[in-house]
Task: structure prediction
Amino acid sequence: MKYLMKKDTLYKTLRFIMGLLFLLNLVGIFIIKDDSQQSRLAFNALQSLLFVIASILPELIEKKAKINIPDFMEVIFIFFCICHFVLGEMISFYIRFNWWDSMLHTLTGSMIAILGFSIVNSISQEKRSLYASPVLVALFAVCFSVTIGVLWEIVEFLADYFTGSNMQRYKNSNTGVLFEGRRALADTMKDLILDTLGACFIAIIGYMDMKKERLAFKKWMLRKEREELKKVS
Result:
């Protein structure tokens, strides 16, 4: 109970801070007349708003889909939101550190794959008669993670289109010169590849763990059946 209260307090505090940043940046757009500063303020306002929306998603998914997301997953999720929206975009860690984006996409792909396994486990526990094949569960986890990655790239594209930002790294961050050909696609494709690799890594581990659990369950069932037969005989 104490842990849940701390988690709720953390979420509310972060939402308040990011909501306040959204309002301050929004007001700044109308006060500051410099075009470049206005673009930056608009970008920061958008990132703050996206952070607030993202922080609501776990609770919304639990209520609407009636599934239980592990608490540690929610804490990791909010940590990634801070790393992406605040450190990565607003404080420009993506520009300062070349490895920042790659690290987050790999770890995010893994985290969402874990969420995919959690969703299937929640459904299986609710419907006890449902048998989920380890291969299909692992495949679902990968597809689920990659789909979220694709949706995120769409969000980045729309953010770049409407605010002139460079979330998809289609131009040089320092000079503003547009990349051409494959270079313009490099960041987006790298992100999707890393999402997929992170998801596949978790899928393999999850598959092996499920196979191990099923094997242990079958051994337990066989042992129980033998004990029952001995009692009858």
Observations:
- The chain has seven helices and no strands.
